Amino acid sequence: MTFRHSGDLGDCIYALPILKAIPGHHSMLFVDRPGITRPLTPRMGLLKPLFEAQPYIKSVTATEDYPDVDIVPFRRFHSPTTTLVDAQLNEVNSHSAIPIKVDTTQAWLDAEPDERTKGRILIARSPRYNNNYFPWGQIVQHYGNRLLFVGIEHEYSNFCFTNGKVDQIRVDDYLELAGLIKGAELFIGNQSSPMAVAIGLGVPFIQGVCLLQPDCIFNRKNA
Fold this sequence. Notes:
The chain is 31% helix and 17% strand. It is an alpha/beta fold and 223 residues long. It starts with a strand and ends in a 15-residue tail after the last strand.
């Protein structure tokens, strides 16, 4: 089947457990739509290697070809407390004669663990969806040089300015990011796309939940 998406990076990652729950090998079509997120197709190269490494994904392309299922309007089902998986599942089920069931207690991503993060704690903090009460400063004091920040330069510089200096690691795409997260002892972050990868991989994580939009809470024993 073919699915069309125009959301943000994390939105696309949260669509994958739905595709995994549907038997077969699927194609994801990325398009750009004016709205609350940045254009998706210029960033397709970040997600494509990770998506196509999953056994249930056949291909990822940027095209206006008409899909079997259009996930683009999923925000009509979204609310501050509805997970991004459930919102997209409701959109997909609105096109399906038989309701699809998704078990988000199980991992929907896989990647080879990267040795560079063995024994380290990987952290990420984006500008959006933050919790001002989250004790980042105490985390930096407690874990010190075990921490490894992943993110773009202004995220890293802002984090260090606010919370203290930590090491940084750069990635070329989200398949590399998934390997780093899979190899780490723990992932700590806010509701950013690296958090979506961590949840998708099923690894232990600590989330700084945005109190205004807690839409990334998943019932996991290691969460």
